[in-house]
Amino acid sequence: MRIVVSGTHASGKSTLVSDFAIRHPEFVVLPDPFELVDEARDTPSAALFATQLRVSAARLHPDETPGHFVAERGPIDFLAYLLALDELSSAPGSRELVERSIEITQGAMQHVDLLVVLPLDEGAEIFVPPDEHLPLREAMNDVLLELVDDDEIVGANTIVVEIAGDRNQKLAALETLMPAHFRC
């Protein structure tokens, strides 16, 4: 089973992936691509999101990561960030970059069985400091929720599920989606 956990920053992805990995050591954990990119300390930019999109897409290919995995973020996250950045910017980004990012995302999502989306949830009790680019966080959330409903982006074979609630509720919801042989 190949799982991607998606959501805007500070939505509970790391916690859910970590909690899941503890209970399911048979799954390889693919960390947030933010941690794998040299420019990760830079301010949010189209170039940074495009780089993370490429990294997250490449690792979803079965030749790169065979077997079962749970990935924190997928290319759809970074496509949503690129589109949200465009929405918030007075100068739109490169249409060519967006079109190429859509193509990469479509191809990579063909290798995902389950896309778990964590929408912003006021009840989740996640503290978000003001320096976390709050307008971008909200815009990305809205764009992501639109993208996950698009079968041309996600693919017809990928199961998409939105999960909300506290940390235990999110883990329980994810585990109910697992085939019986993976359940604890």
UniProtKB/TrEMBL annotation:
Highest taxon, organism lineage: Bacteria
Name recorded for this polypeptide: NadR/Ttd14 AAA domain-containing protein
